[in-house]
Amino acid sequence: MGTTRRMLAAAAALLLLAGAATPAGAQPPDRVLYEVRGTDSAQRDTIARSGADVLGVRDGTVTVVASPAQARELRAGGLPLSEIGDVDALLAERGAGKRTAGDFPAGDEGYHTYAELSEELSAAAREHPGITRLSSVGTSAQGRALHLLKISDNAGTDEAEPEVLFTCNQHAREHLTTEMCLHIVQRFTEGYGSDPAVTNFVDTREILVIPSVNPDGAEYDIAGGEYRGWRKNRQGAGTDLNRNWDYRWGCCGGSSGNPASDTYRGPSPFSAPETRAVAGFVDSRVVDGTQQITAHIDFHTYSELVLWPFGYTHDDTAEGMTAEEAQRFAEVGRKMAASNGYTPQQSSDLYVTDGTVNDWMWGKHKILSFTFEMYPRGAGGLDGFYPPDEQIAPQTARNDEAVDILLAEAGA
Ligand code: 0X9
Ligand code: CA
Ligand code: CA
Ligand code: CA
Ligand code: ZN
């Protein structure tokens, strides 16, 4: 962007900001960004239980988007919400500037749209036919294919090798995660035959990558004149896919029953076609009574965390999680976190959630299942979901060693 264009963009952003901040006689904004400092985990559970949208947590400071009703409820409960700004105005500021319809904003074209993602996967399959198999696990609410790329030697044959699953983009606006899955695809296809570690994993594992679990939401997030800060899928008012999994679904105040909430769990477990499709695929990997997938990472942004189940309870051990099993999660989680500089913890240490993917993967299938919350670390508000595309290469490569640690563990 040239200087003049940059100044125009800045001026446009100011106009939008000014326009949204004091619209004469207009409704109050529906979504306001707040910070709550010095929270303990019980207070974070209260925030999550209200159905407000927790964007990030760092050293007890929670960044949260709340509706006026949610904000009133939280303040009435004694939580000190300090207002950062109107979400739509803040987003307008981030996405201001020229853009091609349906593409990422000017300057962020390094991110892949759904069409570009589909093309990259086809190209990887075309260029590396011996070690790839491209298919889909099903379709989204709006009919987009939920792509699955398998990477392994003799990819067309189901061999007796540990299967490892990587899923990305359950949450629409977490675009950096789609790039993470694409980076895994590129690294294990392009590096095959030249990089000894990559070659060894491709020869001894079946690597399964689903780069976008929520393509409808991701496309919707970029389809307007600016980033929308959209989280859910695009079925009705939208379901939070990471509250829709069928393990202790809706059990524990870690999701919302209100369709307007950003953490709406849906009307029933697996009501979303996207979660149902991914779960159906994982269920189908039980061969002769044995689940073939032994390890899994679901990538999210942001906060730079490595998280493990259970999320529905603060207890370290529970039915289906012995002390030894909890210990293994902590050990592998800490090892991966030591490699990428993230912070390792049980997911409920952040706040309680129910119906998440990790609880289902472990609770139903005993798959060693982690959530990574990627870059950035800090509580950057909505901007945290939209790092400049210059961050794609460093922030995805940052997880190479952690991915390798999990691939190694999958054989143990
Ligand atoms: O809330 C989520 O679904 C994940 N965070 S995000 O900001 N990407 O939405 C975290 C899920 C991990 N589980 C728990 N915190 N219990
Ligand atoms: Ca850029
Ligand atoms: Ca193989
Ligand atoms: Ca197999
Ligand atoms: Zn997420």
UniProtKB/TrEMBL annotation:
Top-rank lineage group of the source organism: Bacteria
GO molecular function ontology, one term from the record: metallocarboxypeptidase activity
Keywords: Carboxypeptidase, Hydrolase, Metal-binding, Metalloprotease, Protease, Signal, Zinc
GO CC aspect terms: extracellular space
Reactions mediated catalytically: Releases a C-terminal residue, which may be hydrophobic or positively charged
Active-site residues per Swiss-Prot or TrEMBL entry: E373
InterPro entries in the record: CARBOXYPEPT_ZN_1 (IPR057246), CARBOXYPEPT_ZN_2 (IPR057247), Carboxypeptidase_T (IPR033810), Peptidase_M14 (IPR000834)
Signal peptide coordinates: 1-26
Pfam family, one: Peptidase_M14
GO terms classed as biological process: proteolysis
Enzyme class, first EC level, given as a word: hydrolase
EC nos: 3.4.17.18
Residue span, Peptidase M14 domain: 110-410
Names of the cofactor(s): Zn(2+)
Annotated function: Carboxypeptidase that possesses the specificities of both mammalian Cpase A and B. Thus shows broad substrate specificity, being able to cleave Cbz-Gly-Leu, Cbz-Gly-Val, Cbz-Gly-Phe, Cbz-Gly-Lys and Bz-Gly-Arg in vitro.
Family per similarity comment: Belongs to the peptidase M14 family.
Protein name, per record: Zinc carboxypeptidase
Organism phylogeny: Bacteria, Bacillati, Actinomycetota, Actinomycetes, Pseudonocardiales
